[in-house]
């Protein structure tokens, strides 16, 4: 996993445990489900250290009356993460992927994942990514929240550089809920694509509902795209997604 830096905001004042701060925080999957998933991986490893799926059987865990398929879809049904969507060719967005989303992600044949939360990446996600040769980048952002916490523009630029690189695609970008931090990055992609402001904000609000943040929309509007445009030109990267 490649980790850039974790930021609490421009002011240097720690993120206060407000309702909005709690809303942004990743809530770990319950221990029982994680342990069952990790056990299923151990049972599926063959002598060469690779997943042995030739029998095609489904390993499941029954937890809180819900059946979770760990390694395969159930009857061909895949469960995407919440707020999942295709942004453009080679780039997807979503909330934080959970265990029951793994078969869906496997079907996308991802090369990379860009995570925007500062919390430590869960072991179950690390295992899934390692097995499927998915490279993980992590840029920990604090969401735009009044009055002190703001996303640093240079971190968004770092994120866009990762997303623009065709060697990282197909790539999934996610934060916790796939609403605000992910919405800011996608909004800046739309700026690069010359979308109108009304279209950008309509898309942002559709995924952020019912918690749209004016500071996010202000950030998208004010973000200076010149640096990332120059980076793309210098590296012969195309904006025609």
Structure description:
- The chain has 241 residues and is an alpha/beta fold.
- It has one domain (2-26, 78-234): Protein-Tyrosine Phosphatase, Chain A (Alpha-Beta Complex).
- It contains 9 helices and 8 strands.
- It has a 6-stranded mixed beta sheet with strand order 1-7-6-8-5-4, covered by helices on one side. The protein has a two-stranded antiparallel sheet with strand order 2-3.
- Helix 5 (153-164) packs parallel to helix 9, helix 6 packs antiparallel against helix 7 and helix 6 (181-192) packs parallel to helix 8 (214-222).
- The longest helix is centred in the N-terminal third of the chain and has 14 residues, at 31-44.
- Its EC number is 3.6.1.52.
- GO terms for molecular function: inositol diphosphate tetrakisphosphate diphosphatase activity; phosphatase activity.
- Pfam families: Y_phosphatase2 (PF03162).
Question: How is this fold's topology laid out?
Answer:
Blueprint: E1 2-6, H1 19-24, H2 31-44, E2 60-63, E3 66-69, E4 85-88, E5 91-94, H3 102-108, E6 112-115, H4 123-131, E7 135-140, H5 153-164, E8 171-174, H6 181-192, H7 197-208, H8 214-222, H9 226-234
Helix pairs in contact: 5-9, 6-7, 6-8
Summarize, please.
It is an enzyme of class 3 (hydrolase). With 241 residues, the chain is of the alpha/beta class.
CATH fold type? Protein-Tyrosine Phosphatase, Chain A
CATH architecture: Alpha-Beta Complex
Biggest pleated sheet: 6 strands, mixed
Q: According to CATH, what is the class?
A: Alpha Beta
N-to-C CA distance: 26 Å
Report Rg. 19 Å
Q: List how many beta strands DSSP finds.
A: 8
Number of helices: 9
Contiguous low-pLDDT stretches (5 residues minimum) are: 3-16, 47-70
Please, what is the average pLDDT? 80
- What's the helical proportion of residues? 25-40%
The portion of residues forming beta strands comes to 5-15%
How many discrete structural domains?
Answer: 1
- Give the strand order, joined by hyphens, for the main sheet: 1-7-6-8-5-4
Helix- and strand-based class?
Answer: alpha/beta
The secondary-structure element order is EHHEEEEHEHEHEHHHH
- The CATH homologous superfamily is named Protein tyrosine phosphatase superfamily
